[in-house]
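pasting for ref
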Amino acid sequence: RRVGCDEAQHGPTVTAFVVLAAGRGTRSRAGIHKALLPIDGRAVLTHLFDLAPTDARLIVVVGDRSDQIRGYCRLAPPDLDVQFVQVADFDGLGSGPGASLAAAASEVGSDDMVFTTCDTLWAADPSLWAVGGSWAAVDSIPPGTAPERWCRLVPGVGVVDKQPGGDG
C-alpha cells in the first residue's frame, strides 16, 4: 500500500520519487543488495515505496546487483510500475550518490522530484511534498568519521560526492 498525500490539503505532489540503489553497500555482508534486507518482514525498498506520494513515478537507480533489485520489483510489488536507471560506473572515481542522481536526471526530466537513498528510512510526512522549490534534508557527519565518506552539501560549492574507498 502506498501512503501518499492529499493534494488538496498539502499542495502539489511530487511527480518523481527516486531511490538511489546503485552502490556496492560494502558494510552489508548478507549477499543480497541492502535495499532488499528485511525490516519487519518487508524489504527496505518496499518501505521506501510506501513513503512516495500515490501518484508519483517510482524510479530506482541501480548499479551493483541490479539484477536482484529488478527481479524483486517484478515479483514482490507486482502492481507497482517501477522505472530503472542503470549506472554503469557505480564503484570508483566519480561514483557515489551525486553521480547516481545525475544519472537519474534524464528519466526525471522537468518533473518535481524527491530522492532518497536505499538505506535511509524516514517517517512519512505528506507536508514534505508541499514545500515547493529545491531543498534538501541533511544531517551532521557522525563524530569520528572522515567527511570524505559522506555525500555533502557545501554552501557556495554544491554537492560534494563521497570519495572512493569509503565503506558506504
